[in-house]
Amino acid sequence: MNPLSGIRYAAQIAAAAESHGIDPRLLAAVAAQETGGPGSSSGANIVGDGGHGHGLFQIDDRYHAFAGTPQAMDPAQNANYAAGLLSGLISRYKGDVKAALSAYNSGSPAAAGTITTWGDGSRLGYADSVLRHEAMLEGGSGSLAAENPETVSGVNALSDYAAASGAAPAPALPGASSSAQAASTQASSACAAQAPAPQVPQWTAPQWQFLSFQSELQAGGGAMAARDDAAMASLVDPTSGDGSDRDG
Q: What is the largest CA-CA distance in the chain?
């Protein structure tokens, strides 16, 4: 039985998964997460994320040169590129699929990543949401995603957070994913939108004043300099022979 029966771009996804030695349902689940939606088993070949996410797996042109080529909109090559990234991450994290998925989305194996709200009210981090898509594929449930960018929010959570905070996007880790550093998905930027803007306290000028030795010498006929020299001399033990501090 074809494990991707009824899935859009099943042949391209299956070929890419086989080429890189990963489960085709896992790869299809990533596509459903990236360009499908909660309850969908298929992704769509679209440009999303404000024009930065390309193809079935939303390869981000801010982090991947491949995304700037025509091949990025070829479902077969897009799937092959994503499969290579995911396979490398699974190897890096010694078979820990959840860690690999988290890194694929956010660059960190421990991050929750982009939050997806499902129809039953569940709010799942990126890896858990992909695994739920995979479970749907194993059970044969789910529906096709419309081949329409309007059905996918295409929001990059990290970019939204960076825009809100004034920070620059983090550079992609070697081998990090299409959604590298926070995927463009149907999920929304809930985690980014909820991040409060940093509060910077207003700068207050210091109340002290620094004077050079020359300024002190000139002030009051040298009185200030003489006073400070006397204060310094009181800290040195003249009987020590080596000028050491009294408490040293």
A: 100
Dihedral sign from CA coordinates of 23, 28, 31, 32? negative
End-to-end CA distance of the chain: 84
Reference 82, options 116, 53, 110; nearest CA is 53
Q: Residue 58 has what pLDDT? A: 94
Give the residue extent of every domain in the chain.
Answer: 10-193, 204-248
> Is 0.70 topped by the overall pTM?
no
The 10s digit of each residue's pLDDT in 51-94 is 999 999 999 999 999 999 999 999 999 999 999 999 999 999 99
Amino acid at 217: L
Q: How far is CA 21 from CA 50, 83, 221, in A?
A: 32, 9, 86
Q: Which amino acid is it at 169?
A: P
What CATH number should be reported for the domain whose range is 10-193?
A: 1.10.530
